[in-house]
Structure formats: C-alpha cells, structure tokens
Amino acid sequence: MNSQDQQLDELRTLILKSQSEDLSEAETIELNRLIHLPGGAEEAARLVDQLCAFTDIGSSNFLSLEEEQSGARQDSHHTAPPAFNTAAFPEPTTERSRPVVASRPNRPHAEAHSLNWTRAYWLVGLAASHLVIGSFAWSLARPSREVAPIAMQTAKVKPPQIVSMTACVWGHGGNSVPTLGKPIHQGEVLNLVEGVAELKTGDGTPNEALVRIEGPASIFIRDDGQLGLNHGTLTAKSLGFGSEQVSIITPIGLVSVDGQSYVGLVSLGDSHEVHLFSGRAFVRPLSTYGSSDVRLEEGDAVRLSTGTEMDSGVVLFEASMASFASARSNAFDPLSLDEKYVSAVLESSPDIYWRFEGLEGSYPQHVKNEGKLPDLHASVVGNPGWRQYRGNRVAELGLTDAASAFTTETLWPSKPLDNYTIEAWAKPQLYHHGEMICLVDPQERREGRHDQALLLETFAREWFYALKVLGPNRIRFNHRTPPSGVVLDGTNLVSEDPYQVRVWQHVVARKSGNELSLWIDGNLAAQQEDEAPLPANMKILIGQIYPTKNYRPYVGQIDEVAFYDRALTKQEIRKHIRASGRLVDFD
Length: 587
Known about the structure:
eight-stranded antiparallel sheet, alpha+beta, 14% helix
C-alpha cells in the first residue's frame, strides 16, 4: 500500500471511528488535514454518500469497520432522519448517489422510524457539523463550484467583534456600522472607507484570529463566524493550532491558513494577491482562474489576475509587507537625526523650527521654536503621543479619538509672502484624509470652523466629494488667497505618486515668485503657477484643520517642522535630506 492509499485509509478510519466515540482534538485536526490532501475530499464525500445509503438494519445500529468500508448493506430504499441538519449539505451537482434527506426532510412518519436509524446516519450528522466533512468535502470534491461553502458547526459560534479602530470612516452600502466590543453577526457586510479596523474572530476556538482591515475594503461575516473579503486589503494572524484553522472566502476562491500563521490578502480590481509572512496557507482558486490549488510556504506570495497584462493568470513571487500598512509597527523605519541635520536646517535660517524633542512651560505646554522668531512656539492641543528613535524624538498624532495637535498663539507670517517654504518629515500611519500642516484664518467663521490659506495634507483612496478628481493616496499642497473653506478653492498641487504608509518622507511645500511646487524626498512631485501671495497673520495648525475642533486629524508621526520666509533652493532641500543620512540625487 503506497503512502497516498495509507492516508486515505486513515481518513476513512477516522470518519468511521467517530460513530462510536468522540474524536480527540488531535484526531479532528488530522481529519481536516487529510480531507485537503489530493483525493481526500473525494474519498470523504464518497464515504459520506455510502453511509447515507445505509438503511433498515434493525436494532443492532452497528456495522463493523470492514462492512462499512466495503460499502456493505447498501439499499435502494433510503430512510430520512428527521433531526438531520440538511442545511449543511448543498445540493450535489453530479449524478452520484445523494443523501435523500436533502429532498425528503419532513416525512410524517419519520418519528416512528427513529429507532431504526443506523449509526451511519448519526455519523453523517456528526460529520456534517463537528468534523466539517459533509458539504465542505463535497465542495472541495467539485471544483466547478464557485465558492466552497463551509459547514455550520452545531456549537454556538461566537461572533466576531471590533477590538480597535484607527481613523475609521464607515461607508454606505454595508448593513452595519460597527462599534468597539459589539458583536458582528452572520450575514453582516462592513464597508470601511478609510482607516484600519482590527477584528477578533473565533474567540476561544481553534479558529481564533486577529484580522486587520485597511480601508477602503468590504467584508462580510460568514455563517461559521469567519470572514469573506469582497474587495480591499486585510491581514490575518491565526492564533490557534492545527492545519487550516482559519479560512477566508475571497473573489479568487478559498484561502485557508494554518494555526500560528500570518497572511495578507489584496483584492483590487482584476488583481488578487495572497502573501504569506509566516506559517503555511492553501489557496483554492475558482475554476475561472484555470489554476490548481496552491500551497504557500513562509515568504511565498501568489497573484491571480484576469486582466490582459503579461502577468495575468497565476504568478508566484516573494511576499512583501510593503503592500500592507497594518503589517508594519509604528516603530518601522526609524528616523534617527543628529546635530548634522539640525545644523543644516539652521544654516538655511528658518523663521520657525520645531524639533519636538521635549515640552516646556506650564499649561498649555509648548514645543520650543529654535528658529529666528522667538515667540512662535507650538502649543499642545489635546494629548499628542511621542516616540523615541535612538537620539531623536518625534510627535505621534491621531492614534486616539481625542485631539492631538499643535498650534500657535502668535500669527505668521507678519506680512504677505511671495516666497516661502514649509518643510517637514512625515510618516502617515495609513491612507486617510488628514491635515499635516495648515495655515488658517484666526477669525472663526461659524461653529468652530475657520477658512484656510494653506493645506499640506494626506489624501485617502476613496472620496465622496469633489476631491476625487485630484487622485487617491496622494499628498496635496493647497495655496489659497484669500483664505477659503471651499475644498477646491485656490491652487491644488497633488503628488504624482502615492505617499508611503509607515515610512518617513521628507515633504516640502514651496512658493518662489509665481511658481508653486511640492517636493517629496528631494524630488519635484507637482508644480503649478499662482502669483497671489500667502496671506499674512495666519494661525499655524499641525494635526487637524480647525483650531478647536478635532476634525480631519492627521494619523501618523511628524518631526522637524520648519517655516521659511523665502524659497529654499533645490540644492538646500537635498542638502537637508543628505544631512539626515538618507539617499537623494546629487544633481
């Protein structure tokens, strides 16, 4: 007997053993593993079909292993067990024998025949619910089905719930707007427009997992409490033990993840990716992709595409966390600056230079200005966080629902400017619409709202308003004279490429005469003409758009913010970056 035959024989033995006793957790895990082997699903479905055919064996209610394995005592007469959960079994699409329970569940005299049920029928009910054989085995055995349904467990499934949310905006089209700690029930659809939401699924079971969804994304809750991905990006950490404990239905098919494994899924348009960061995973593509099953080992990734590009079809490549904001910690990509960088900035003679190395003064405390204008300190708004990178400390904003920002009591500039530069290091935590730096009219317009003269902000991937025309996932520099609260007023400069999440970027907004320009990491990202000067006497804000309203918060880290009353040259901008120890072109 070869290895495959031995494994299939073990599969049949475990199925049959369960009719007389409960399987241990190890045996249950082994049974699930064997079902997913080549030929395992077909063999399990075949045995279940045979067992469903056993009838009229009187009060003995027992068959030997030899009799059951040989398919003995099969009958053309089938008695339907009334208590059998037929919902777990999809209607078979092949011509093989099928359980009659699916067609005659309500025989009026079924109760009178209850004592004549075989233990084989009891086994089928157990197999369908406890051992995840029934419909799941048939689904795996039939590659023509679009998505393999998962059998319902008889035990009550604990619904998933949100355990954390960061800058989440929930969109229309879903039937639920989740809140922290509130269960999310079977069939609910969640549409996340912006932010990162973390869910716990299968709490206290072998299927337990932590799932992080990155907006925009849409998910739904399956009958078994696990997730389905309609579109978007998510990562999942399987916290249980055993083979294929966590499964996610995706537009490309079923993705199963072993216990103690970590996987990332991307489903955008016609392109779908599965990245395995640790452990093992199994991808069962839909028949439309024309691909066989794919087993992923740690570090592997697979892309399935139906587009017309050269890499359409199935492409294997190296897994990368770069596609997943939530896969990186806030400490990723440290910004370590020393006196060399500080000296390079001070040589350029900034009006304002905030280093965020510490707070001074009494309430409200402030970040000291190290530039030319001694009174322009950055006063604390709310409760910003801090992160230490070796000898450099940075401000961490927007990680809670409370305000976390900085503002000025003294206004800037003292006169209109035809030339100016604003410089900062920024590390957005996620794709979102957030205000890194604003200049706002100190005069309140209404209900805490103020007009803006300048915006330096991050965009999200998806918009409901007119800003959609400017492109998603970009950095926008907006110059407005006179100040205005209308979103598209003024001159808009939008970076050609998306910004990076959880990666430090050097950002410069500059006006030199009639020329406005946006620079990212020392490279020109956008350019427009506008002859209007920057208005005088504006309030500076970092981290939100209004001085007293926690609205449109910037979520991420920021450091080394400097304001100049002149236009820095390209050489000066690049000199600052090189002084930080980062690479930049030398032209």
